[in-house]
Amino acid sequence: MWEHVTTHIQAAEKFLDTPEIPWKSLITSLLWIVYLFETYVSWRQYRLYSLTTPPKALMAHVSHEDFVKSQRYGRDKARFAFVSDAVAHMVNLASVTYNLSAHVWVWSGYVLDWMKVAHSEKALSGANLVLGLMLQMPVGFILGAYRNFVIEERHGFNKQTWSMYCMDHVKQCLLSVILGVPIMALIVSVIRWAGDAFVVYTVLLFTALILFGTIIYPTLIQPLFNKLTPLKEGMLRDRVTALASSLKFPLKHLYVIDGSKRSSHSNAYFYGVIPGGSKHIVIFDTLIEQSTTAEIEAVLAHELGHWVYAHPSKLLIISLSNNYFTTHSFNRFLSIKCFTVPLLLGFPEQDFLSPNALTFT
């Protein structure tokens, strides 16, 4: 069976290793297909924001005034998403059309020359990461500023100051460099050390990095942006603890986060995917201020439902499966002679320390 599969893979590689294939046109076409499909789906959702009355199931729970405010806020966010998605699409198209990634790699060499650093693969990969972040930062900064200081401000949610917003971006960039450059060097080392078997070892490294992120994010990274304080003794703590116990959730830390320093939005989440490891429940101070104990308990029941149904573990498995697929595909494309790219220039991008894949809100 595997010999049959291998034969088909080799035949596909031989077919793909043809300079006449218009790869750039194919990739840009795929980018357009994905963008248009996602825009169509978003447009379908956007049309629902024109409704002026809530669904019957919500009429007894949501006032007409609150529903209208929610619809107005949803429309503004959707319009902004159309613009930001279009900008991202244009950047992707420009990157493919004008070979921007390759140019950034060459510019990284110039940076190393200016710094009088030897052109090793690790050094070039690190410089490429830093330079790429610097080029992406202005667009992200401008879009984020508009979202916070125009849309969120218009609807009364924004609490950030410009100084706080700028400082957050500086911290994020520094963290990306401080953590990203060593991780890049580590990935290159593992790939070179493992040779033809690098796919398995790289996925194992990805797994270790993701789990490492679950450990350092709540203890080292998040405190750089927000203050976490233990939830005080009282009815709320007792009910949350009882809820966790009833679901056999291994709660070890229960915190309140000062989300009100940036936004009046309320939220709560739990953190931790390692079996037997530390599990956090974090409640926004705005949720405590705006909700009753029973309402907070209901919100947390939803969050812990993710744990009951093993959503973190399933999401981790899906993420690692995707990592394996993309890494394996990358390995197969390395054998195609008409592709000549540096090791990490063509490597699938990973985001190991992002809390988005590890936190359920």
UniProtKB/TrEMBL annotation:
UniProt keyword annotation of Ribosomal protein present: no
Gene Ontology CC entries for this record: endoplasmic reticulum membrane
Instruction: Please give the start and end residues of each transmembrane region.
Output: 80-106, 126-146, 173-193, 199-220
Q: Which residues bind Zn(2+)?
A: H302, H306
What is one process in the GO biological process aspect for this record?
A: CAAX-box protein processing
Q: Name one Pfam family in it.
A: Peptidase_M48
Recorded catalytic reaction(s): these are: Hydrolyzes the peptide bond -P2-(S-farnesyl or geranylgeranyl)C-P1'-P2'-P3'-COOH where P1' and P2' are amino acids with aliphatic side chains and P3' is any C-terminal residue
The top EC class is hydrolase
Concerning InterPro entries, the annotation shows:
CAXX_Prtase_1 (IPR027057), Peptidase_M48 (IPR001915), Peptidase_M48_N (IPR032456)
Co-factor note (free text): Binds 1 zinc ion per subunit.
The record's keywords, sorted A to Z, are: Endoplasmic reticulum, Hydrolase, Membrane, Metal-binding, Metalloprotease, Protease, Transmembrane, Transmembrane helix, Zinc
- Domain Peptidase M48, chain residue ranges per copy: 230-327
The entry lists its GO molecular-function terms as: metal ion binding; metalloendopeptidase activity
| Keyword set includes Metal-binding | yes
From which domain of life does this come?
Answer: Eukaryota
Q: Which purpose does this protein serve, as stated in its record?
A: Proteolytically removes the C-terminal three residues of farnesylated proteins.
Instruction: Name it.
Output: CAAX prenyl protease
